[in-house]
């Protein structure tokens, strides 16, 4: 087999059998310039191209630290194929410590894919990831955690899009190989390549199986959350036969379907009444919103029976913002 030449991502020009790090430069637009730190690890042998993306949301540090460990641990001589590590996709959000949205344009990076070269910072970052990472990879894992204000129990999203069953099936196997035993079945993502909205959906719609993972929360990279992310990344690489060794596949996954994100009916202060990983009954109090004087202005009931996958645990809340997510556990997908 003829060896293809190593990939280049931004200033990281891959070299066969080596790790190379660099930056994708995002030129100045309406708002300042930024850049994306990336590593290209080119294995000694031919194989698939896997992209691991961290830091789409800057206050989700567990995956970010995990990819630093992955960079350190992978021996290119042992690697088959190519690993692209996007260490911190959203450097403005990371540096300025924002949740959900970028600091300059107030856009959620994971709602603007595939992005635009002429847009604001979030649009330009998404465009760079689409054109330089997604278009060059064969499959992708977009690694998230609870954001800085969210307590979360680990889970993955399986994008069961229904456009290409083979791609859906490969994504399912990747989710099982990542190793989180709760997997949300998501059938509602957009099917328009030009309005794919989410990072992983952008890859999936281009025929590249992709999963979104959630492990960690409240802005704290605990040892266990970082380890879950590292183990997940290694498991997917072993599943794709990029690394030797056997990965543990989730034997009895808890598929989550349906699931629902609760949003705040008002602006004020948020007082959650449930904890993460707790089972709630339909109609039970999920939490309440008070005004700035502490008087209750809205009670939020659970819209369905289910497991609390994440819940906002800090008080600042705006009308329409997420409060948490509930999902029903089933044994079938
Ligand atoms: Zn996120």
Percent in helix: 10-25%
What form results from the Cα inertia axes? globular
Poorly predicted regions are none
Q: Can you count the beta strands?
A: 19
Largest sheet: 13 strands, mixed
- Describe the oligomeric state of these chains in a short phrase: single chain
> What is the CA-based Rg, rounded?
20 Å
- Percent in strands: 25-35%
Mean pLDDT: 95
The number of helical segments is 6
Could you explain how this protein is built, in words?
Strands 3, 4, 5, 6, 7, 8, 9, 10, 11, 12, 14, 17 and 19 form a 13-stranded mixed beta sheet that branches. This protein has helices spanning 61-73, 91-95, 121-133, 165-178, 199-205, 223-239, and strands at residues 8-9, 12-13, 19-26, 34-42, 45-54, 80-86, 139-144, 150-152, 155-159, 182-186, 210-214, 254-263, 268-272, 279-280, 285-290, 296-301, 306-312, 316-317, 322-330. It contains six helices and 19 strands. A hairpin with a 7-residue loop joins β3 (19-26) and β4 (34-42). The model has no long low-confidence stretch (mean pLDDT 95). With 333 residues, it is α+β, with helices and mostly antiparallel strands. Bound molecules: zinc ion.
